[in-house]
C-alpha cells in the first residue's frame, strides 16, 4: 500500500489504521441473536501463568482477561512481576506454565500469526542504537513485511507525531532516554497492531510528550485498539485507563474497571492499602541533617 497516511494526531489516521488491521475489528460488533451472549473474545486472556527464576517465583499463577477495546493499566511495586508477566503475554519469554490467548488465538502455538497483531514496547530491552530514528522505525516496518512506500510514509508520520522529526537522522545511541522510549514506541506502532502492550511507556518521557502519547493512545483505543500499559504513576493510570490490575508478589491482588478497583478512593490510596507499606525511614537516622 503506497498511499499517504493522514497524520497520527488526525482522527482519520486511526480510522485508517482500523481499516489496515482488519475492517471488521473496528466496526461495532453485529448484534448477537436474542438470548445469546456476545462472542468477542478478550484481547488478551491469561490463564495460570507461572514463571520462576531459580528459587524466585516471579509470576505465581496469574489469570487475567483484558477486554477488547480496553485501556488496561498494570500497576505494582518494584519486582512485582509485571515485566515478567507482560513478556510472557507477548511471546518474549516462554512461561513455565499457563496459557495466553490473543483475540482467542493461543499465543505459543500460533506465535508468528499472533505476533503480527501485537505491538510491543518492552522495558529496558536493548535496541539497535547504531541506527538513526528513521532507520530503526523503517527497519521495524520492513521486518513486518510492509512495503517500503507505506513504511516510509508512516515512519515520517510517527516521528513527527512523537516530536522526533528533528532527531530523525540522529543515531539512537545519541538520543536521551525519553527519546529512545518514543522511537521504540514508533516502531511498535508502525504495523498498526490490534493490541499494544507497553511496559512503562512514560518513564523518562517529558510531560508534553507524555500528554501527546496519551492522546495518540486514547484515540487508538477509541477506534478499536486495545492498550495494556504498565506504570508506576497511579494518577496517570487512574485518569487514562478504564481497567486496572494490581500485581504484587507475582499475583493479582485486584483487577477490574478502575472505578471498581479504587472503590471510591484514589487509585494510589487503594494501591497502598492493597500492597501495604513495607518500608519506613526509621533505620536511616544517620541521614538526618538536623
Ligand atoms: N531474568 C531474570 N533472572 C532472575 N530473576 C529475574 C529475572 N527477571 C526478573 N527476575 C525477578 O523476578 C521478579 C519480578 O521481576 P519483574 O521485572 O517482572 O518485576 P516488575 O514488576 O516489572 O518490577 P519493576 O516495577 O521494578 O520494573 C523480581 O524479583 C526480579 O528480580
Automatic annotation (TrEMBL):
<keyword id="KW-0813">Transport</keyword>
<dbReference type="GO" id="GO:0005886">
    <property type="term" value="C:plasma membrane"/>
</dbReference>
<dbReference type="InterPro" id="IPR003593">
    <property type="entry name" value="AAA+_ATPase"/>
</dbReference>
<keyword id="KW-0067">ATP-binding</keyword>
<dbReference type="GO" id="GO:0046677">
    <property type="term" value="P:response to antibiotic"/>
</dbReference>
<protein>
    <submittedName>
        <fullName>ABC-2 type transport system ATP-binding protein</fullName>
    </submittedName>
</protein>
<dbReference type="InterPro" id="IPR027417">
    <property type="entry name" value="P-loop_NTPase"/>
</dbReference>
<dbReference type="InterPro" id="IPR050763">
    <property type="entry name" value="ABC_transporter_ATP-binding"/>
</dbReference>
<dbReference type="Pfam" id="PF00005">
    <property type="entry name" value="ABC_tran"/>
</dbReference>
<keyword id="KW-0547">Nucleotide-binding</keyword>
<dbReference type="GO" id="GO:0005524">
    <property type="term" value="F:ATP binding"/>
</dbReference>
<dbReference type="InterPro" id="IPR003439">
    <property type="entry name" value="ABC_transporter-like_ATP-bd"/>
</dbReference>
<feature type="domain" description="ABC transporter">
    <location>
        <begin position="44"/>
        <end position="274"/>
    </location>
</feature>
<keyword id="KW-0046">Antibiotic resistance</keyword>
<dbReference type="GO" id="GO:0016887">
    <property type="term" value="F:ATP hydrolysis activity"/>
</dbReference>
Amino acid at each position: 500500500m503506497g498511499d499517504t497516511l493522514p497524520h497520527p494526531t488526525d482522527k482519520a489516521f486511526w480510522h485508517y489504521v482500523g481499516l489496515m488491521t482488519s475492517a471488521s475489528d473496528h466496526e461495532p460488533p453485529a448484534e448477537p441473536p436474542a438470548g445469546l451472549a456476545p462472542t468477542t473474545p478478550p484481547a488478551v486472556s491469561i490463564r495460570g501463568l507461572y514463571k520462576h527464576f531459580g528459587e524466585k517465583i516471579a509470576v505465581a499463577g496469574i489469570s487475567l482477561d483484558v477486554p477488547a477495546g480496553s485501556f488496561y493499566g498494570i500497576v505494582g511495586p518494584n519486582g512485582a512481576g509485571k515485566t515478567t508477566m507482560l513478556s510472557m503475554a507477548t511471546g518474549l519469554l516462554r512461561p513455565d506454565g499457563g496459557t495466553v490467548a490473543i483475540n482467542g488465538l493461543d499465543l505459543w502455538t500460533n506465535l508468528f500469526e499472533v505476533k503480527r497483531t501485537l505491538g510491543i514496547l518492552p522495558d529496558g530491552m536493548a535496541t539497535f542504537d547504531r541506527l538513526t530514528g528513521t532507520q530503526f522505525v523503517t527497519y521495524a516496518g520492513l521486518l513486518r513485511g510492509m512495503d517500503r512506500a507505506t513504511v516510509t510514509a508512516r515512519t515520517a508520520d510517527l516521528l513527527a507525531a512523537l516530536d522526533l522529526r528533528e532527531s530523525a537522522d540522529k543515531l539512537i545511541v545519541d538520543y536521551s532516554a525519553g527519546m529512545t522510549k518514543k522511537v521504540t514506541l514508533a516502531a511498535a506502532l508502525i504495523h498498526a497492531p490490534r493490541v499494544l502492550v507497553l511496559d512503562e511507556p512514560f518513564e523518562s518521557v517529558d510531560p508534553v510528550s507524555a500528554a501527546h502519547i496519551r492522546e495518540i493512545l486514547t484515540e487508538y483505543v477509541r477506534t478499536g485498539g486495545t492498550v495494556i500499559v504498565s506504570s508506576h504513576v497511579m494518577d496517570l493510570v487512574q485518569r487514562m485507563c478504564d481497567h486496572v490490575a494490581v500485581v504484587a508478589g507475582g499475583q493479582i491482588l485486584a483487577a477490574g474497571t478502575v472505578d471498581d478497583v479504587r472503590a471510591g478512593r484514589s487509585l494510589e490510596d487503594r494501591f497502598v492499602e492493597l500492597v501495604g507499606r513495607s518500608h519506613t525511614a526509621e533505620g536511616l537516622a544517620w541521614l538526618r541533617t538536623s
